[in-house]
Amino acid sequence: MKVSRRGADRLKGGHVWVYRSDIVSADGVAPGALISVADDREKPLGTALYSSASQIAIRMISKDAVRDLDDLLRKRIQEAIAYRERVVRDTDAYRIVFSEADFLPGLIVDRYNDLLSLQVLTQAMDTEAVRQVIVSALSDRLAPAAIAERVDPRVRELEQLPARSSGLLQGEKKSTVFSMNGVRFHHEAFEGQKTGAFLDQRENYMAAAQYARGEALDVFCYHGGFALHLAQHCSKVTGVDSSRPALEVADRNATLNGREIEWIEANAFDLLRDYASSGQQYDTIVLDPPAFAKSKSNLETALRGYKELNLRALKMLRPGGILVTCSCSYHVSSADFLEVVTQASRDMHRNLRIVENRTQAKDHPILLAVPETAYLKCLVLSVS
Ligand code: SAH
To answer: Does 328 qualify as catalytic in the annotation?
Structure first.
């Protein structure tokens, strides 16, 4: 398949995507096909997986010619596992395959102790043959009790894949307990968001716990990832989320760890407004909202949302307090996020010091030439 000069330049720069507008011709190429990519002068650029539906028409899988896709997939999975063995510590729950960042575009695999949870995001990764290779490579290397597939119907629709339900691909076990940094969590293979937990925050939980003290508020707490870590050092911890099922799991997690945490079901914006105006005070506040900017078009609204949350939190923090503030919107850059938090500090007349400027955990690697792989921002700030 030939790509335009612009597409070729992108690949030569180390990116792995070519957009449909940079494809010279895709006539007769089957959805999900393995294709050789060349520039407009027929110079080979490597091998890619094709999608007939996505605006991202091709995702590179190798800079070389690929004769045996099964073999390459096995090798990539082994490399991904070996990378985690080098960089992941103190947990049996982490991301094993992170799509483009592991040169396995369209595949996500998370480990929760003895269960694996997998997500397929593209046509190429959805074929029966590819699924079999993935499942067998993962089982050979990790011998999990079960492998679950979590289906996001919206992703399948966008990728023009036939509807499919979530289910076990191997084994029978559907729930387990995993642990990170000495904190234990319940996991249900087919419940909750994403594949079950926000594993990308694992290292940030530790960072937050290191500085947390006094009375703490974990806003957008989900299953209590931050709250349970803060409870190791704080005198009182309160978690807030609008999802009752999430809080029910959070409460079971607190019991599992022998902690007492107060859980409040509320809209975080309303609760923060009420608490801030009634003079409620905290020593530690965590803000970890869902992605407000799902696309570039609502960036402004998203930034207003982040600013409002941070304003309210700053109003409630005692002098010397710790603010842990996060954004998982890819479209909000680190610079945008820092700017919003700075504006909030000016408006509230508070001085903020950056204690740590963090990102996603190392098992969600950031590929330097593919900026889309970096999405999580987490600032640990000291507030005076
Ligand atoms: N901090 C969590 C992840 C948070 S994900 C962790 O580390 O595991 C975002 C959470 O925000 C979800 O649990 C979702 O239920 C909740 N949420 C979304 N909108 C909300 C709102 N307006 N008020 C309160 N919670 C909200």
So the answer is: yes
Using the atom order of ligand 1, give the atom closest to the CA of residue 289.
9
pLDDT in tens for each of the 384 residues of the chain? 999 999 999 999 999 999 999 999 888 999 999 999 999 999 999 999 999 999 999 999 999 999 999 999 999 999 999 999 999 999 999 999 999 999 999 999 999 999 999 999 999 999 999 999 999 999 999 999 999 999 999 999 999 999 999 999 999 999 999 999 999 999 999 999 999 999 999 999 999 999 999 999 999 999 999 999 999 999 999 999 999 999 999 999 999 999 999 999 999 999 999 999 999 999 999 999 999 978 888 999 999 999 999 999 999 999 999 999 999 999 999 999 999 999 999 999 999 999 999 999 999 999 999 999 999 999 999 999
Tokens of 174: 């559907």
Query: Which residue's CA is minimally distant from atom 5 of ligand 1?
Result: 290
Nearest CA to ligand 1 atom 3: 222
For residue 278, give every residue at least 6 positions away whose Cβ sits within 8 Å of its Cβ, in sequence order, or none. Answer: none
Give the residue from 255, 223, 263 showing the smallest Cα distance to 239.
Answer: 263
> Which residues approach ligand 1 with their CB closer than 6 A?
198, 201, 220-223, 225-226, 241-243, 246, 267-269, 288, 290
Q: What pTM did the predictor assign?
A: 0.96
**How many whole angstroms from 8 Cα to the centroid of ligand 1?**
40
Measured CA to CA, the distance from residue 16 to residue 246 in angstroms comes to: 36
